[in-house]
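Can anyone check this?
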Amino acid sequence: MTDRHERPGPEDRRVRVQGRPVDAFPARPAEAERGSVRRITVVGEEVLSRPCREVSEFGTPALSALIDDMFLTMYVADGAGLAASQVGVDLRLFVYDCSDDHGIRHVGHVVNPVLHLPDPGGRHLLEDFEGCLSVPGAAMAVPRTDRAVVRGSDKDGAPVVIEATGYFARCLQHECDHLEGRTYLDRLSRRDRKDALRQMADHRDDVFARRAAEAAALGR
C-alpha cells in the first residue's frame, strides 16, 4: 500500500511497534538496515492472484531475511505496507509502517494474519483514495471499514494482536487482501478498474525510475 502520510521523524514518541507503545523509534527500523531491495510484482502477475500459503516454520534465518528485505523494499518504494506476494513469495506475511488518523505511527510485521472486522451492523465505511505498490502510479477511492483487528504471530511464533482505526485500518485490510490473492482493483467497478489501469500505464515508468534512484542512493 502506498503512503499518504508524512513519515514521522526519529524523535517521534507516538509510536507503536508490533502493537505496543515505545518511547522512541528510528525513521527506519533495524530490519530495513539489514535488508536488500527486491523487485515488486505488478498486477497481472500470477502470484498476486492466488491465496498465499501459511508460514509453517518460525524463527528461521530465511523468514527473518525475507522480513528484512520486505521492510527495505517498502521504504524504497515509499510504501506504508507490503505483502510477501508483492515480492514474489506466496506466504501469509506482511510488513507495515503506517500512521493512523491520530498521528500515531504503527510499525511491525504479522505472520499468518487473520483479519477481524466489526459486525455488519456496527461497521462504518469510509471511502478514501488508496494506492498499491503493485499498481504503480494509480490511486482510486475504495470503501473500507474504519476499524480492524489483525491477529497473527511474529517471526518467532509469538502471538501478535494489532488494533487499527482510520487509515491504518485501511492499510491492514489492504495487505490482508493481498494474502487472499486480491488487490484493491478487485473492489472497483469495471469502469474504475479501467481508469486505475490507465493511470498505471501513464505513470509506472516514472514510479519505477524513482524507486531505482532511491535504491541507488542507498547503495542497494
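Reply from J.R.: I decoded it. The beta strands are 15-17, 20-22, 81-83, 93-99, 105-116, 125-132, 135-145, 147-153, 159-165.
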